[in-house]
Amino acid sequence: MIIKGVVKKDRKTKDLVKRLKPGDIAIINHKDLDEIAATSLAESKVRCILNLDKTISGKYPNQGPNILLKAGIPIFECSDKDIFNVLDEGDIIELKDNTIVYKNDSIAPCEELDNEKIQQLLNIGYDNIEKELDKFIENTLEYAKKEKGLVLGNIDIPEVNTKMKGRHVLVVVRGKDYKKDLMAMKNYINEMNPILIGVDGGGDALLEFGYTPDIVIGDMDSVSDNCLKTSKEIIVHAYTNGKAPGLERVKNLGLNAVIFPSPGTSEDIALLLAYSNYADLIVAVGTHNSMIDFLEKGRSGMASTFLVRLKVGSKLIDAKGVNKLYRSSLKPRYMIWLAAAALIPIVVLTLLFPPMKELVQLMQIKLKTLFGF
């Protein structure tokens, strides 16, 4: 098999997918390729993936590679990280006989991860999951003691212009199946008109569905300039010492923002913000709330998420996977009744219209003659 295409490369997969076009060869440096990244790559319809790191390390059973295989996108691995510097974006390369060919020269070996190889690596991850779970629990409990202020109210909540009291608040994170979940919730959004909070790239997710975020909150590393300019308010997640690396980007765009120093994740403080502003109901879409979710984000524990959900639980509805909760389909019996209902006015009009009435009577006579009634 020979695969030829234009090189697109980036050390951050989430930045790379913004530039990919169908038919490109995506060079990534992504250990344990997660589902979100894989889905974005698959949607870009690239010709193949060339990963300069372990696509599956065996640490846990990450499902990103399976998503690419289902999309018909081959995955290759190359252990020579210098390839990233040797090739420039826009170069044309070939992957031929497990070799990277550039300008007719073989520059490095590579290996295709077929389905059998992926399943072997995933099985190692499944065998290792108990050990990872033990580490995860220990880290979660250790940091929960340090971050208990999230529950006790020791975190200063910044003042915002958006009024949430008595309103529904929809918090959107660009997590697994966020598109399907947002699609399933369109009627809810249109009817209830909730306050819309986008967590980093979640703001772009709202824009993608035609909604303007009331608030964008996060460290500003994965949200577009367009979203920041469109959003009504911006809140930059800062470290507990007040340092906020994302603030400089906002200022460079000529925009204003408030700072929210807090431990934990940006989605955690989004929930805290809504709760502390007396939201009547908080609906979360695409949030990370399981061990696998956190391992895919490179986090070793979920102390802040555990504590925040403990605090806001009475008002929180997690809509993750809501698209699978109810799938409406038009059953055959409904179609029969629908057809019958549609025929009623036709029959009534036919019987009331004299020429049609005579035609029906004529048909009745022919049927009696034909069948000997």
Low-confidence stretches: none
Number of helices: 16
Number of domains: 3
DSSP helix fraction:
40-55%
Overall geometry comes to globular
- Main sheet: which strands, in order across? 7-6-5-1-2-3-4-8
Distance between the termini: 72 Å
Radius of gyration: 28 Å
Give the mean pLDDT.
86
What's the β-strand tally? 15
Broad structural category = alpha/beta
Q: What percent strand?
A: 15-25%
**Main sheet overview:** 8 strands, mixed
Task: Please provide a written account of the structure.
This protein has 373 residues and is of the alpha/beta class. The chain folds into 3 domains: 2-120, Aconitase, domain 4, CATH 3.20.19.10; 149-324, no CATH class; 338-371, no CATH class. The protein has 16 helices and 15 strands. Strands 7-6-5-1-2-3-4-8 form an 8-stranded mixed beta sheet. Strands 13-12-11-10-9-14-15 form a 7-stranded parallel beta sheet, sandwiched between helices. Strand 3 (48-51), helix 3 and strand 4 form a beta-alpha-beta unit. Helix 12 runs parallel beside helix 14. The radius of gyration is 28 Å and the shape is globular. The N and C termini lie far apart (72 Å). The mean pLDDT is 86. The chain crosses the membrane at residues 334-353. It holds the Pfam family SteA-like_C. Keywords: ATP-binding, Kinase, Membrane, Nucleotide-binding, Transferase, Transmembrane, Transmembrane helix. This is Putative pyrophosphokinase.
Summarize the structure.
The protein has 373 residues and is α/β, with parallel strands linked by helices. It folds into three domains: 2-120, Aconitase, domain 4 (Alpha-Beta Barrel), CATH 3.20.19; 149-324, no CATH class; 338-371, no CATH class.
